[in-house]
Amino acid sequence: MSDRSAQAPLFVDALALNQWLLERFDAAGRPLEQRVIRLALDLLECLTLALKDRNRDLRIEQADELLIRLRVLLRLAADSGRLRADQYAYVLGCVDTIGRQLGAWRRSLGPV
Predict the structure, then answer these.
(1) Concatenated DSSP letters for 34-57?
(2) Which tens digit of pLDDT belongs to each residue from 72-87?
């Protein structure tokens, strides 16, 4: 199994996260919703490029930073009533799963 195919679940989970968010947030709506969607799309793009070995180490670092920012904005969305408690718990679980996979991938590459 190649390194890239071993990382495929990461892409699948990031794609599913984007689909879920797009179903709940209006990209043309409120600024917070626009920003959440933009961060999630940027995350998907970074992971896609990293999986294709395009500046992999940089893209992994960027993806990690995007996850940090996305978590904060999702909390703000929940606190402001744009996400119900059950939706927030679900999406945070998705983000945490992506974060664990990204961390494992980073560790598998050895010291930076």
Answers:
(1) HHHHHHHHHHHHHHHHHHTTSSHH
(2) 999 999 999 999 999 9
Tell me, what's the pLDDT at 112? 61
Predicted structure pTM score: 0.89
In the predicted structure, residue 4 carries a pLDDT above the cut 60: no
Are 37 and 66 contacting, i.e. CB atoms less than 8 angstroms apart?
Answer: no
Q: What domain range is 70 assigned to? A: 3-108
| Helices and strands (H and E) in the chain: how many | 5, 0
The domain total for the chain is 1
Handedness of CA 78, 84, 85, 91 (dihedral sign): negative
Other CB atoms within 10 A of residue 10 CB: 21
CATH number, residue 37 = 1.20.1440.60
Are the C-beta atoms of residues 10 and 101 closer than 8 Å to each other?
A: yes
Structure tokens, 38: 């933009």
